[in-house]
Amino acid sequence: MTAATERKPMRATHVGEVMHEGVLTCGRDESLVAVARSMADHRVHCIVVTDGPSQAHALWGVVSDLDLVAAASVRDLEEQVAGAAAATPALMIAPDDTLQRAAQVMVEHALTHLVVVDLGRPVGVISTLDVADWLAGRTAA
User: Fold this and answer.
1) In what order do the strands lie in the sheet with 113-118?
2) What is the average per-residue pLDDT within 57-86?
């Protein structure tokens, strides 16, 4: 058996086993230039937009790399802020939810990222790339 066939099924694997820990956030009024810089510096595909400058504030949306590119195609990023570009809603999932449920939510809402929330606090992000890594047997679960 290969590693891919030995691992638990999606319905028995928890989001917390596959997600990336930690969340990069910005406020709704953050410039898209700063958002782009943060994405590039940290090599991530999304930034979670909050209604304030810290993770303690309510989640509001997600600026994905595709949202950023779409915004740049319309006008200069210097003229735009994260709150206006957050075309992707901040949908949340718990770390003890199953990977199968995370995949269902992503497909149902045509999203590539879910914010993982534990006890009301964002603790990580799970993306379609994380699911692909797991499917390829690259994530220990």
Assistant:
1) 20-21, 121-127, 113-118, 92-93
2) 90
- All structural domains of the chain: 10-135 (3.10.580.10)
Instruction: Strands of 1-141 (E only): list them.
Output: 20-21, 25-27, 46-50, 59-64, 88-89, 92-93, 113-118, 121-127
Length of the chain: 141
Q: Work out the end-to-end distance of the chain between its first and last CA atoms, rounded to an integer number of angstroms.
A: 16
Distance separating alpha carbons of residues 69 and 67, to the nearest angstrom: 6
pLDDT digits (tens, 9 = 90+) for 89-125: 789 999 999 999 999 999 999 989 999 999 888 899 9
CA distance 127 to 64: 11
The residue type found at 14 is: H
Sign of the alpha-carbon dihedral angle for 82, 84, 86, 90: positive
Structural tokens at position 82: 């994260």
Full-model pTM: 0.83
